[in-house]
Amino acid sequence: MASNVDVDFIPNLPSGPLDEYRKKASYDWKKLKLVFEDPEMLKLKMKVWDMLQTDVLFHHLPTTLSVEQQKRRAALQLAKYHQFRFYTDEILKNNYKKKTRSMMTINEATAAVHMDLSVKFAVGVGLCTNTVLTLGTERHLPFYKAAWTGEILSCLALTEVSHGSNTKKMRTTATYDPKTREFVIHTPDFLAAKCWVGNLGKTCTHAILFAQLITADGTCHGLHVFIVPIRDPKTLLPYSGIIVGDMGEKTGLNGIDNGFILFQNYRIPRENLLNRISNVTPEGEYETFFTNPQQLLGAALENLSTGRVGIMQESANTLSNALCIAIRYSAVRRQFGPSDKDCELPIIEYQLQQWRLFPYLAAACALKVFISTFTDQYLDCVEESNSGGKLNKLSVMVAEIHAIVTSCKPLMTWTCNDAIQECREACGGNGYLRAAGLGELRNNHDAKVTYEGDNNVLVQQASNWLLRQWRLATENGTCEVASPLNSVQFLSNAESILKKKFTGTKLEDVLSHSFVSEAFQWLLCWLLKTTEEKFRRYLDQNEDRFTARNNVQVYQAKTMSLVYAENIALVYFWDKCCDPSLDPNLRPVLEHLYLLYGLWCLDKNLTILYQGSYASGPNLADLVKGGILHLCSLLKNEAVGIVDALAPPDYILNSILGTADGKVYENLQAAFFHNPGAMERPSWWSEIIPRPSCKL
């Protein structure tokens, strides 16, 4: 980012107790903000936030509503949300990439204010209309338009009670009846009931349903996608032949009415099959572009990648928000101090507090830069696919993108989960207050580790692709990999990489990009080599491939996928550090963040680095740990400015501990005094006062 970039549209921050640390920062926080945010997309976010703040329906409430009232409020918010028309005709008519990026940004901004509303819209409008556009044809456009205008509300019905990740084994059926030219949707038993379907419990009118397509001759052609009417849009009463209901209270996100549904020989028109890649003729003949049902299933499920990318964006923001609250609080909260001085120190001055928070701060910066750049690459690929790009080239790129998504979504959601908890504890008892905002962040984020793909299943998909690349690079002497995005291009040098050893003796030996890069490449090569060797040993012992794959997950394949994801984030972040247009004043702090995230990730994998003899003796462990503490000390005076660059406005952050003015104690007093009923006698007082004892 050039030094003369316009930052005037970013509002100034209020003066207050945080000024002490803001003055110590070595850079302009507004310019740093534009390293993490595209200026045009940031302006779009600010527009969304300004509009939502003007309407009382979107204001934050001081207490928690009942579950039913949370559902009602989210539904009312969705109706009003359509009226704001964030998704204008101008946005919808733009080129695919700009249109989709704008839509994702608007939803990202909405999620920061009300996650329930964001999910309700993303599932009911965004994801469903995207599925219709990519898998449907001209005949489905009326449904697409009705969903965008709010005339109907949809849901995505994939998961069943007994099957979630194993989509091939789902048992809801859609059998074609050529006599009536209808599909008969049927649920054989409760285990095949669709469940965990957002919007289905109370409010949706239509479902995008995944079901096994069966033709009249009894042939099952695999999972296909159908538009299925669920409720009358005028009354919200379900149609005959459907059993549908709400699943009940959840740990968080109770504004979303997750539902279950069973179909009892329920009929829909033939035209309700999304038929871009396969079709059934009126006479009942099955037609498809694919020879393998698994290829068709893959094409249908690839739509979920957009949802996963959205989850990664939201996780990066949630991670940033949690760190903003904890670090601003740490810069104001004072406890203890040297005995010879009559003063207390801000807790950010303590090494332990820095060690708890700053590596997560570095992770937030690295992951935010990564997901912003990767989203553009992902949308470029989708756009090329939609415009009829070369199939072979696209299939290779899609496979790599899938590996990146299925490794980075777990990395980002797990990192965010852990960070929120650490931030909550780092704020002490005050962090446990609802008004601190950390509890709501935790509850609303928690679902992301399992929806749109359970993390432990996704990393297995990534590991399968990685092992294929290892075989390409090491077998038959080809030294080639199918990595157009260069995420594992270095595997072509695997033999020389694995010969490297750590010989460093001083701190400077680990405080460099070359060390971080070399260590990660060695780590991934060693994990690939040992995972493949273990896999082959099981095969040699006559184990089937399924069992062999299952037996290499713990300690090998799962770790390998996460190391791959960490390395990707570091590569993207380093590219940003080296951007020639970057303001020179920003580079030092970004490099320190890069090194801290890199050493922190390596610290978690020290056992493997020693196990594989990359290092011996105490030097590597001592220097990595020493480097982490050294970098934490360097970032102490920069941290408040960094979170200023990451933070949304106070209205969005919604935390009495993390306001931009730093007035923690004034905010706490207001929260205590204005808490509804705080100084009132309880309505049940008469039930607890002691009764006078009876005298004989």
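That was protein one. Protein two is written in the same sequence-then-structure order:
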Amino acid sequence: MTSPHSEDLLKAVASLPSLPGVYRYFDAQGLLLYVGKARDLKRRVSSYFTRSHDGTRIGHMVSKIARLETTVVRSEAEALLLENNLIKTQQPRFNILFRDDKSYPYLKLSASSWAPSHTESTQGSGGSPRPEHYPRVSYYRGAVDKRHRYFGPYPNAWAVKEAIQLIQKVFRLRTCEDTVFNHRTRPCLLYQIKRCSGPCVGRVSPADYAADVRSASAFLRGETQTVLDELERRMLAYAEQLAFEQAAEVRNQIAALSKVLHQQAMESTSDQDVDILAVKVQGGRACVNLAMVRGGRHLGDRPYFPAHVEEGVVIAALDDDKGGVGVSDVAPTEPLAERRSAPPSVEQRVLEAFMAQHYTGVPPPPVLVLGAPVDAHLIELLTEQSGVRLHTVFNPREHRRAWLDMAQKNADLQLARLLAEEGSQQARTRALAQALDLPEDALDRLRIECFDISHTAGESTVASCVVFEGHKMQSAQYRRYNIDGITPGDDYAAMRQVLQRRYGKLAQALREDESGPTGPHRLPDIVLIDGGKGQVGAAKEVFESLGLDVGRLVGVEKGEGRKVGLEELVFADGREKIYLGADSAALMLVAQIRDEAHRFAITGMRAQRAKTRTGGSRLEDIPGVGPKKRARLLQRFGGVRGVAAASVEDLASVDGISVELAETIYRALH
């Protein structure tokens, strides 16, 4: 039997080295199908082409392979890191894929440039307080700066904000930005309600504030007894010095901290940093629920929903280096030999995919409580890659069992919610296909692009294009177009321009492409236009000039009185317009897509308008305008717009702004 693959591909497979590395499969159009790692590239990759996979999902993928790429690395741990970086960035079709569209939040303590000396007075450091002497506690998300201290990661923003409130309540650290700190002349409201110690106006010395920072840091690390002992020593020292007011302040801190610890008594355990991972698989979908314990406090959880579960699980089975798998920590009632010979469950495959992708980007805590056993070899690789010695627990007891039960319950609830939402969305897609007489055999591939025009009395015209595919909005494929060269306020001309820019090159590619409608150059099945006959007519002109099918054009016309639910669909190919009904699932989907296009257009228009009105620049971008001068300008003129409206003479009247700098500012903002 002849191979369906080219001779060049088979030669490339035969010439692979027996070394660790990562391999990537591509189809004839250059789309990435699958990314895998191997301790032995030659043995692993050859297994795809020497075994029979007819009639299986693996066979379906293998039949599409047209090209192979490999990268040799020094160890399997490096291969694990590279594999999962590629999976997250390239999103191959046949890998179990966890999409994490945002980084984790942290609690940040800004760096301090001051250290107390033995001779420093505790009553103040003299002169005006400087913000670098008083570290600020704040919410942070993004790349970390080693100059500052970070605590976390936290599962969500709410957990960080709750921690900041505790820090304010007990240790009274400042949360204001440096520009606010530098311009305070009297204490703010937070000082009045005892949520800040007032460092901006010298109500606390750098030495005392530094002690509060140390205590807050220890508290966030879970060293609560150390914090209480230190506070007690400070209180007694103040009492011996007859500084009874300061002693009373520390006493109040101890009382506030004791109250917090009492409220968290149910959470207090010997564990400091733990991740709890529960998994649920149902209806072809899966949920991994990650709960976090940091510093002995349960911070909450966060659900993840992978894509390509069924395909990824089946193909991952071929990627086992050995027939059975070892589990990292196991139920004591099950014989080890039986566990090693049993094939991995779907839950295990999903959990292993999550751990590999998650912990190659986020440092793992030393303890992982798992809802399913995982391959011990994966734990070894994660330990080697992260430098953290991992201890995993399956079938936990006592408080860890309670944590896992809570995480599992949330995984069950989150997956049930997702399935209900997806069922509803799929029903809407089907209803729209029926209403427009479209084929219903490939609804997962139904693609809708919707356009809207937004401007303010003709100023800063912006067109939006949003995409619906796979029963959901695809925000990564949204596009905005700045419209110029037209009469201000001419929506028809704006629509003609955006459609020409969107589909002009695609139409040319379609004429040259012989792969047909399923090839890489594919028009949307429906092009929605937010407008009635006039807008649809303008769109029809563009499609006819490009040689495209005008039957794809559908306008969403406002109903009588522009009331929601009375919209009608207008067609460019001569069909009578139709009214779907206010309760129609099809109309709900159309309205959802139309409203998203409107939102995306209007936010872009407002940003463009603001940029235009401030000369395309911000004060931060102007050379010579530092934080202090910027603050003075904003205070004098009430904001950026006021600064932009000021004359050179007005700008030069601000303390610290020379005539030359005023001219620079004026030119930058006009």
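The longest strand covers residues 459-469. Keep this in mind for the problem set.
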